[in-house]
Design goal:
mainly alpha, two-stranded antiparallel ribbon, 10 helices, 2 strands, globular
Length: 247
């Protein structure tokens, strides 16, 4: 399959304009920063040991912000535009044109991924953490991988949904679980163990590791990210073909 950079760039510019013009969606990553700043002023700076988990305000805020941005914003910014295109029947028209699936996927993903990564970086000072305390290569790699996974989940939701309203309803349970991950890990050890097998859990491990001698890569975290990516990508391709969008 031949991939045209010119077509990818054209889709990238089109998707960027549509994304930036959709205020209900584009404001979601802004809310991530806003909530972190608000919680920073409401939650006292503490460090307590509870159930073997060292809790720091900065780590909690960063973890919450990352999950809010990558989970809620990432899924919303990728699911709603596809659901809208499907609702207006413009998605099938585009996919039956000269643009192939790979070109559409890359061109559509890049605007969302760039916005998510910019906000991921801005969440560091917003949570009160110095850039010098961050292992930036590791931070960017893990948050980037998690962002792509959320985008894939959003694509899946967008394709199986008939319209934007349904996309919001389908994605709501997933968003609730993701955004509750940091709190669940603190107050319930069993749930914390389960969340270790989710990419939201990896994000929480990353934020907590900043205050425990630096984050250390583990086989579990690496395996979780790889497995989630492979499963989500495979499911996306299956649903994509099942809906006849590759024809």
């Amino acid at each position: 399959m031949k991939v045209s950079l010119k077509k990818i760039n054209a889709i990238f510019q089109l998707k960027s304009q549509l994304l930036l013009s959709n205020m209900s969606v584009i404001l979601t990553p802004v809310f991530a920063i806003g909530f972190v700043l608000l919680m920073k002023n409401l939650i006292p700076e503490v460090s307590v040991e509870e159930q073997g988990v060292s809790f720091f305000t900065g780590a909690f805020l960063l973890g919450f912000g990352l999950i809010f941005n990558i989970g809620i914003a990432g899924i919303s910014m990728s699911s709603h535009p596809i659901a809208e295109e499907k609702e207006k029947n413009t998605l099938r028209v585009l996919m039956t044109s000269s643009v192939n699936g790979v070109e559409y996927f890359i061109g559509s993903m890049l605007p969302t991924l760039i916005i998510l990564m910019i906000v991921n970086v801005l969440l560091i000072p917003a949570s009160g953490i110095a850039f010098g305390d961050i292992q930036m290569p590791t931070y960017l790699l893990i948050t980037g991988a998690a962002s792509i996974i959320s985008i894939l989940i959003g694509y899946i939701i967008g394709i199986i949904s008939k319209n934007q309203t349904q996309a919001g309803l389908v994605g709501m349970p997933i968003l609730l679980v993701l955004t509750s991950a940091p709190l669940f890990r603190i107050y319930n050890e069993t749930i914390a163990d389960i969340l270790n097998y989710t990419y939201a859990g990896v994000l929480t491990n990353l934020s907590q590791g900043l205050f425990s001698g630096g984050y250390q890569w583990s086989v579990l975290d690496s395996g979780v990210l790889i497995c989630w990516f492979v499963v989500c990508l495979g499911l996306f391709v299956f649903i994509y073909k099942r809906n006849g969008l590759d024809s």
